[in-house]
Design a protein that fits this description.
It is a single chain. The protein contains 20 helices and 13 strands. By secondary structure, the protein is α/β, with parallel strands linked by helices. α12 crosses α18, α16 crosses α19 and α18 packs across α19. The chain binds uridine-5'-diphosphate-2-deoxy-2-fluoro-alpha-D-glucose (U2F). The site of uridine-5'-diphosphate-2-deoxy-2-fluoro-alpha-D-glucose (U2F) has 23 residues, from α15 and α16. Pfam families: UDPGT.
């Protein structure tokens, strides 16, 4: 008999739903007598459904808010439409889940990006458990948005005049500079949908005494203390995906990335991926391609087909003919980063990629674009010291060659490798027997399922 019925609500864009689904699966395997209804849009559920599910987890589609089947919205419009109809869609989805299980939902776990879930949970007089899937330090910055605006000011000029001074007025960001502050706090169009979401979610979170985070206790001890003080029920239970037994199954390697890597020596290949929503300009993409070609490092590049069309003419053919590089639309990234041939990861520093790089023991070459990525890049290169950052101008041919020289050939690169191996050990131990993430997950389950 089902002891408790828990709804888990995803933000159905970029890698958010995948990360939350990993958490839902982890919870379902540790609490076999509870049922977990995972709610997301049809399209986002389809991207997850190839993964094998336990019998105590079910997928519940909710509306994407698109009213005409002929209308294909842009990425930004799709988010706007989804959020506009979200509360009604969620109410309907929850009713459907309760009907299917014959059992009331006792608690809603949701991505913090869909903070509006809190209102629906309040209406139903049940608990809301928000989950931060991205970097927790970014959330810390957003919780201090008003103070940042007050001390530094608003606009690019304010950032420039603050210069390279460290943000000593914010204890958890005292190794970061004004330029590392995520856009949408005191720069950029504050009405842009992503920035608006981040601002609202942080404000709504202040009403909660619970926070679940895709991070590991000990990765940032000062931040741990901050969140522990702020949220009596704080659960750092990352990396979510490491709890899934499916990560030990053979990966879906449609493009033969792993066999290509097998042909290379240990730590000699660069892996390149700029995440699921790239904002790179064609001119910068071309500079990255030139840098990869000019360096003596073989590379595997995950690049969507539409972006491949923007590469310099003849580039893909040359790379294929010489065997210097392999360019594919998708890779089994977690397995790629664990492959011994991979010696560097050129990344936009999305939080999932950062965690996967640590688990793989691979130093990063950082080129952040938006969101938490700027803060992550600074933590990686300056605090944790397992990577290098590209200069402010982004990818240049020289910059890529220089970064590879540091990571692959210099003593500094060797130090980064040692540093990432230390973190790797800590992170892997956290999900093992008596590890902090595993113990926190058990505490979380008591909180959400009461068991
Ligand atoms: C947004 O991040 P992204 O989705 O752009 O990037 P990541 O957080 O790094 O997640 C990408 C995921 O996609 C997977 C990869 C990651 O789990 O393993 N992947 C893959 O399997 N194969 C590929 O060829 C390419 C990617 C946002 F932009 C970030 O700033 C946030 O930190 C992040 C989390 O909230 O969401």
């Amino acid at each position: 008999m089902t002891q408790s019925h828990v709804a888990v609500v995803a933000f159905p864009f970029s890698s958010h739903a995948g990360a939350l689904f990993s958490l839902a699966r982890a919870m379902s395997s540790l609490a076999p007598s509870s049922h977990f209804s995972f709610l997301s849009t049809k399209q986002s559920l389809a991207s997850l459904s190839s993964q094998q599910l336990l019998s105590n987890i079910s997928l519940v589609p909710i509306s994407d808010g698109v009213t005409s089947p002929d209308h294909v919205p842009s990425h930004i419009e799709a988010i706007e439409l989804f959020l506009k109809s979200f509360k009604d869609s969620l109410r309907e989805g929850l009713k459907a889940a309760e009907l299917a299980q014959g059992c009331k939902v006792r608690c809603i776990v949701s991505d913090l990006f869909v903070w509006l879930t809190a209102d629906v949970a309040d209406e139903m007089a049940i608990k809301w458990v928000p989950v931060r899937t991205g970097a927790p330090l970014d959330l810390y910055a957003r919780l201090h948005a008003d103070l940042i605006r007050e001390v530094i000011g608003v606009g690019d000029e304010a950032i420039r005049s603050y210069g390279d001074k460290l943000l000593s007025f914010l204890p958890c960001l005292s190794s970061h500079r004004a330029i590392d502050i995520p856009k949408g706090i005191n720069t950029g169009d504050l009405n842009f949908i992503y920035y608006m979401i981040c601002d609202r979610m942080a404000r709504r979170l202040l009403d909660s005494d619970v926070l679940v985070s895709n991070t590991i206790q000990g990765l940032d001890p000062i931040l741990d203390s901050y969140f522990q003080d702020k949220f009596p029920n704080y659960f750092p239970v990352g990396p979510f995906y490491l709890f899934n037994s499916s990560q030990n199954e053979p990966p879906n390697d449609t493009y033969g990335c792993l066999s290509w890597l097998d042909q290379h020596d240990q730590a000699t290949v660069a892996y390149v991926s700029l995440g699921t929503i790239a904002f790179i300009l064609p001119s910068e993409l071309a500079s990255l391609a030139k840098g990869l070609e000019a360096s003596n490092v073989p590379f595997l590049w995950s690049l969507k087909e539409e972006a491949q069309n923007l590469l310099p003419s003849g580039f893909i053919d040359r790379m294929n003919e010489t065997g210097k590089g392999k360019i594919v639309p998708w890779t089994p990234q977690i397995s790629v980063l664990k492959h011994p041939a991979v010696g560097a990861f050129v990344s936009h520093c999305g939080w999932n990629s950062v965690l996967e790089s640590i688990v793989g023991g691979v130093p990063l070459v950082c080129r952040p674009f938006f969101g938490d990525q700027t803060i992550n890049a600074r933590s990686i290169s300056f605090v944790w010291k397992f990577g290098v950052s590209m200069d402010e101008e982004g990818f240049t041919q020289k910059g890529v060659v220089r970064a590879f020289d540091v990571v692959f050939n210099r003593e500094e690169g060797e130090k980064m490798r040692n540093k990432v191996h230390e973190l790797q050990e800590m992170v892997i131990a956290s999900v093992g027997e008596n590890g902090s993430s595993r113990e926190n997950l058990k505490r979380l389950l008591k909180n959400v399922c009461g068991c």
